[in-house]
C-alpha cells in the first residue's frame, strides 16, 4: 500500500517534468523545388521561442518534445508542423497572394516583398526589359521602366555627350546614390557644366557596368541618407549582380535610326551631305555571361562581358527653311545636333565562396570598362569671324566645308574614359546569431579629353589634334555592419549597427601647351571647340569622412512594421552632420497596406564641385567667347563674393499605399515632398559689371566667370503610381504595366551672397532666370508609361507607350525675332527667349519568337511613328545656328530627337 502511494506521488511530481522536457531540433526549410529558403521564421506554438533559417535554409531550436512549429517566410504560405525526428525538412508552398519581388535595398534585416516595404521600391528584372527594345544601354532601359527615373541624352555638350547622368524624382544626378550588391558605387570624375540639365552635378555612370552582369535593379524611391549617407536624398539604385552557374548566355543586337525627314548624312559616293532617307546611329551590342561553381558549399564565380558600338547621328529641323547647297540645309549647318559616337567594352565578375563547416563567406565583385567616343562641338563660321581664325585653315580640307559661299568647320571633341572597381569582403555569424559583414570597395574613374580636326587659331592651322588633359576621381569605402534578428520580440525585431570610412581623391591634369596657349592675342585662344586644361587648373584634392549608424525594424504585430535609422558623419573638410529616418507600414487588410516615412538628408558638396577649374568656349546668340569656371577657393571666386560651399540639407516626407486586389494585380501609389536647402548649382556668368572682377578677367583673357554655389532652396512635390497586372494561363501570358510620375518643383529662395548688392543685374549673374528654368526642367512634370505584352506559344508581342509632359526653358536668341522675356544688358542682340516643348507620346512595338529552347529572336521599332520634339521657340521666332542650348533645332529633352529606331536582337543560352 505504501509502495503504491509512493508511485502515485512520484507520478504526480514527475509528470510536469515530462510535460515540459526540452529537445533540440535541427532542420531545413525549402520550397517545392528543394531550394533553401533564407530567413524563414520558425516559432514554437504557444511559446516565445523562435529562430530563423540561415543562408542554407538550416535551423536549430530547442522546443518541447511534442511541440508544434509555426513556419513562415515572405512569399510562402504559413504552415504548422509537429516536431518529428531530427533533422526535419519543412517544405513551404508559394503564396500567390503575397508573393512579390524580394528586395534587400533599404533594410539590413531580412528582405521583404516589394508590396510589404514601408517605402516604394521598384524591382526591375533586366532580362525582361533589355531584349524587347531598341535601347541598348542601361540608363535608357531604366528610363522606360521606373516612374520617376529620368535622364536626358545630351548633344554638343562636351563630356555630357558620353555620360548619361540619371535622376530620381526631378532632383540632380548627384542626389541619387548608386549601390552594387549593396555597396556604395563611385561617381564619375565628370562635372556637367555646359549644355545639360544636370549642370553643376556629377553622378554615377550606370552604363559603365556591363548590362549582362545584372540580375535585377532595385530602385528605392525615398530619401535614405540616414541609412546610406551622402547622395541618397532622392533615393537609391541598387544593382544586384548575377549568381548563375553552368549556363552560358549570349545576347546580341543591332539597331539604327530611320528618320526619312530629318537626318543628315554624308554620301561618300557623291562626296556631299544629303538630307533624309538613310539609317544612321547604327548600334551593335554583345553581352555574355557564364558562371562556375566553386567548392562544395554553393560557392560560385560569375563572369560577364559587354561590347557596344554606336555611330553618330545628325539631326536638323523640318520647320526651318529647307533651301540647300549640296543637299544640306543652309540655315542648319549645326552638325553637332545629334548623338556622338561611342565604342565601349567592359568586364565584370561576382564571386562568393563559403568556408566549409563554418557560417563564413568570402565574397568579391568588380570589373572595368573602357569607353572611347567623339562628338561635334559648335559649328564655326570662318567667314563671319576672320579676325579670330587664320586664313590658313582654308587650305586644310579636313577642317572646313563651303556652303552658299560661307566657310564652316566642326571641331571634334574626343574622350577616352576608364572605369575600374573592386570590392572584397567577408561575412559570417558571430556567437549564436549576430551577423557581421566587413568589406572594402574601391572605384576609380578617369576622363581624358582630346581635340581632333580642329586647330589653335593663334598657332595656325598646321596642327589638328590636341591632348586637352582631363580629370580623375577615386573613392575607397571600408564598411563594417553588425545585425541581429530577434524573432521573439513582438512579431520580430532586427537591430543593425555599423561603421564606415570613406576616402576620396580628385585630380585635374593639364593638357599639352598647344591645347590652351595663346600665341597671338589677336586670335582666339587654345584649341577650338575645347581648349585644354591649363597648369593653373591642376588640382590634387583629397578628403575623408567617418560614419556611425544604427537602425531597427520592429514588426510590432503581424500587421504593423516600424523602422528607425540614425546616422552621424564627420567630414574633414566641412564638419559634422547627423540624420534620422522613421518609416512605417500597416496592413489594413491582408492585401491592402498603408505606408509612409519622414527623414532628414544631406549631400556633401563633391570634390568635383569644390575643385573644378576650366576655361571653355561659350556661344550665346551667335557670339563666341571664353568663360572661366573657377574653384570655390580661388581669388576670382572671393572677388565675386561667393562663400565657401557647405552641405545640402533635406527634409523628405512620403505617404502611400500598396494594394493587391487580386493575385494577378499589384497597385502602389506614393506621394512625396522633398525640400532641399542650399542646393549646390553652377551660378550664372559674371562679367566686368562687378568692378572687382575686371582686372582678374583681363588677366585671364576671358570675358566671363562662373562658380559653384549653394544658390537655391527648392521643394519638390510629386506622386508615383504603378499598376502591374500579370496573368499566365495554359501557354499564354498577359502583362500590363502602367507607371506614372507627376512632379512639380518650386524655387523657394535664391541665396544671393551678401557681398553682392541687390541689383537685378547681379541677381541674374548669380542665378539667372535662365538657370532657374533649367533646374525646373530637370524632369518633365508628367511622365506616363504603359506596357502591353501578350505571349502565346513561342511568340511574344507588345507595345510600349511613354508620354513626356510639357517643359519650358529659356534660351539665347535675337531681339528682333520675338519680344524678349529678360534683357541681360543694353545689347540689341543678347536676350533670353522661351523654348516650349509640348507633351509628346512615343510608341514602341516589338515581337519575339522562340526558335528553340536555346534561341530567341526579337525585332521591332522604338518611336515607330517618328515623333520629334517641337521646335523650341514660341511662335514667331526664327532659327539661328546657335539658338538651342545644344546650338541646334532642339534641346536635350526626355524623348530625344533622333526619331524612329529599328532593331533586332538574338538571345542564346547553352
TrEMBL record:
Q: Which residues does the UniProt record annotate as the domain TonB-dependent receptor plug?
A: 117-236
Subcellular location as annotated:
Cell outer membrane
In this chain the TonB-dependent receptor-like beta-barrel domain maps to 377-864
Q: How does it sit in the membrane?
A: Multi-pass membrane protein
Q: Tell me which GO cellular component terms the UniProt record holds.
A: cell outer membrane
Signal sequence region: none
Superkingdom field:
Bacteria
Keywords for this entry?
Cell outer membrane, Membrane, Receptor, TonB box, Transmembrane, Transmembrane beta strand, Transport
Q: Does the keyword Transport apply?
A: yes
**Similarity annotation:** Belongs to the TonB-dependent receptor family.
Question: Under what name is this protein listed?
Answer: TonB-dependent receptor
Please tell me the species this chain comes from.
Pedobacter yonginense
Lineage of source species: Bacteria, Pseudomonadati, Bacteroidota, Sphingobacteriia, Sphingobacteriales
Amino acid at each position: 500500500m505504501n509502495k503504491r502511494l509512493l508511485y502515485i506521488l512520484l507520478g504526480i511530481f514527475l509528470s510536469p517534468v515530462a510535460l515540459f522536457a526540452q529537445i533540440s531540433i535541427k532542420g531545413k526549410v525549402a520550397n517545392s523545388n528543394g531550394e533553401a529558403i533564407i530567413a524563414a521564421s520558425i516559432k514554437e506554438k504557444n511559446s516565445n521561442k523562435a529562430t530563423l533559417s540561415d543562408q542554407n535554409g538550416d535551423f536549430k531550436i530547442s522546443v518541447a518534445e511534442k511541440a508544434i512549429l509555426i513556419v513562415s517566410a515572405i512569399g510562402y504560405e504559413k504552415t504548422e508542423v509537429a516536431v518529428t525526428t531530427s533533422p526535419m525538412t519543412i517544405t513551404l508552398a508559394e503564396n500567390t497572394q503575397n508573393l512579390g519581388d524580394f528586395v534587400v535595398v533599404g533594410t539590413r534585416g531580412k528582405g521583404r516583398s516589394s508590396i510589404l516595404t514601408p517605402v516604394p521600391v521598384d524591382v526591375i528584372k533586366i532580362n525582361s526589359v533589355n531584349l524587347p527594345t531598341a535601347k541598348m544601354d542601361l540608363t535608357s532601359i531604366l528610363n522606360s521602366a521606373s516612374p520617376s527615373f529620368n535622364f536626358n541624352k545630351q548633344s554638343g555638350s562636351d563630356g555630357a555627350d558620353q555620360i548619361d547622368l540619371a535622376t530620381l524624382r526631378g532632383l540632380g544626378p548627384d542626389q541619387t546614390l548608386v549601390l552594387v550588391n549593396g555597396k556604395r558605387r563611385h561617381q564619375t570624375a565628370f562635372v556637367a557644366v555646359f549644355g545639360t540639365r544636370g549642370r553643376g552635378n556629377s553622378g554615377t555612370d550606370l552604363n559603365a557596368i556591363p548590362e549582362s552582369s545584372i540580375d535585377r535593379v532595385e530602385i528605392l524611391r525615398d530619401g535614405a541618407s540616414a541609412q546610406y549617407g551622402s547622395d541618397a536624398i532622392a533615393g537609391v539604385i541598387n544593382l544586384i549582380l548575377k549568381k548563375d552557374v553552368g549556363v552560358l548566355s549570349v545576347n546580341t543586337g543591332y539597331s539604327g535610326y530611320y528618320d526619312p525627314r530629318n537626318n543628315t548624312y554624308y554620301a561618300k559616293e557623291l562626296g556631299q551631305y544629303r538630307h533624309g532617307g538613310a539609317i544612321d546611329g547604327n548600334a551593335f551590342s554583345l553581352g555574355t555571361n557564364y558562371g562556375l561553381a566553386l567548392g562544395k558549399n554553393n560557392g560560385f564565380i560569375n563572369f560577364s562581358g559587354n561590347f557596344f558600338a554606336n555611330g553618330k547621328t545628325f539631326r536638323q529641323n523640318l520647320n526651318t527653311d529647307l533651301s540647300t547647297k549640296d543637299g544640306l540645309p543652309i540655315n542648319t549647318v549645326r552638325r553637332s545636333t545629334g548623338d556622338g559616337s561611342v565604342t565601349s567594352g567592359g568586364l565584370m565578375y561576382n564571386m562568393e565562396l563559403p568556408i566549409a563547416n563554418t557560417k563564413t563567406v568570402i565574397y568579391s565583385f568588380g570589373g572595368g570598362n573602357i569607353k572611347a567616343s567623339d562628338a561635334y562641338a559648335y559649328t564655326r563660321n570662318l567667314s563671319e569671324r576672320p579676325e579670330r581664325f587664320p586664313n590658313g585653315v582654308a587650305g586644310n580640307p579636313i577642317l572646313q566645308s563651303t556652303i552658299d559661299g560661307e566657310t564652316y568647320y566642326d571641331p571634334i571633341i574626343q574622350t577616352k574614359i576608364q572605369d575600374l572597381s573592386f570590392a572584397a569582403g567577408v561575412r559570417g555569424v558571430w556567437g549564436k546569431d549576430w551577423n557581421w559583414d566587413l568589406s572594402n570597395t574601391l572605384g576609380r574613374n578617369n576622363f581624358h579629353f582630346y581635340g581632333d580636326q580642329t586647330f589653335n587659331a593663334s598657332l595656325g592651322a598646321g596642327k589638328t589634334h590636341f591632348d586637352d588633359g582631363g580629370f580623375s576621381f577615386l573613392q575607397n569605402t571600408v564598411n563594417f555592419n553588425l545585425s541581429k534578428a530577434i524573432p521573439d520580440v513582438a512579431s520580430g525585431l532586427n537591430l543593425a549597427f555599423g561603421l564606415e570610412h570613406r576616402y576620396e581623391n580628385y585630380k585635374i591634369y593639364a593638357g599639352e601647351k598647344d591645347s590652351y596657349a595663346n600665341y597671338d592675342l589677336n586670335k582666339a585662344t587654345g584649341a577650338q571647340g575645347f581648349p585644354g586644361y591649363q597648369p593653373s587648373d591642376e588640382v590634387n584634392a583629397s578628403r575623408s569622412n567617418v560614419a556611425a549608424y544604427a537602425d531597427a525594424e520592429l514588426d510590432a504585430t503581424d500587421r504593423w512594421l516600424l523602422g528607425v535609422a540614425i546616422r552621424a558623419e564627420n567630414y574633414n573638410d566641412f564638419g559634422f552632420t547627423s540624420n534620422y529616418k522613421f518609416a512605417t507600414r500597416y496592413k489594413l487588410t491582408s492585401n491592402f497596406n498603408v505606408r509612409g516615412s519622414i527623414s532628414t538628408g544631406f549631400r556633401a558638396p563633391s570634390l568635383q564641385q569644390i575643385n573644378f577649374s576650366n576655361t571653355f568656349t561659350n556661344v550665346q546668340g551667335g557670339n563666341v567667347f571664353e568663360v572661366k569656371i573657377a574653384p570655390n577657393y580661388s581669388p576670382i571666386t572671393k572677388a565675386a563674393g561667393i562663400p565657401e560651399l557647405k552641405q545640402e540639407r533635406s527634409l523628405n516626407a512620403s505617404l502611400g499605399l500598396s494594394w493587391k486586389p487580386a493575385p494577378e494585380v499589384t497597385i502602389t501609389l506614393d506621394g512625396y515632398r522633398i525640400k532641399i536647402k542650399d542646393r549646390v548649382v553652377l551660378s550664372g556668368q559674371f562679367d566686368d559689371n562687378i568692378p572687382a572682377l575686371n582686372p582678374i578677367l583681363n588677366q585671364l583673357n576671358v570675358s566671363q566667370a562662373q562658380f559653384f554655389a549653394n544658390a537655391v532652396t527648392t521643394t519638390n512635390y510629386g506622386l508615383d503610381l504603378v499598376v502591374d497586372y500579370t496573368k499566365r494561363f495554359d501557354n499564354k501570358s498577359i502583362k500590363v504595366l502602367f507607371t506614372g510620375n507627376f512632379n512639380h518643383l518650386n524655387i523657394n529662395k535664391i541665396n544671393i551672397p551678401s557681398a553682392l548688392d541687390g541689383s537685378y543685374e547681379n541677381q541674374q549673374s548669380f542665378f539667372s532666370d535662365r538657370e532657374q528654368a533649367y533646374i525646373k526642367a530637370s524632369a518633365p512634370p508628367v511622365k506616363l508609361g504603359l506596357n502591353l505584352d501578350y505571349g502565346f506559344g513561342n511568340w511574344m508581342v507588345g507595345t510600349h507607350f511613354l508620354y513626356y509632359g510639357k517643359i519650358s526653358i529659356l534660351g539665347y536668341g535675337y531681339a528682333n525675332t520675338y519680344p524678349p522675356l529678360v534683357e541681360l544688358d543694353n545689347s540689341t542682340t543678347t536676350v533670353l527667349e522661351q523654348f516650349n516643348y509640348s507633351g509628346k507620346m512615343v510608341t514602341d512595338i516589338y515581337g519575339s519568337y522562340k526558335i528553340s529552347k536555346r534561341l530567341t529572336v526579337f525585332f521591332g521599332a522604338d518611336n515607330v511613328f517618328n515623333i520629334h520634339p517641337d521646335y523650341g521657340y514660341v511662335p514667331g521666332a526664327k532659327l539661328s545656328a546657335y539658338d538651342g542650348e545644344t546650338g541646334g533645332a532642339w534641346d536635350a529633352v526626355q524623348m530625344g530627337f533622333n526619331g524612329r529606331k529599328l532593331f533586332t536582337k538574338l538571345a542564346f543560352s547553352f
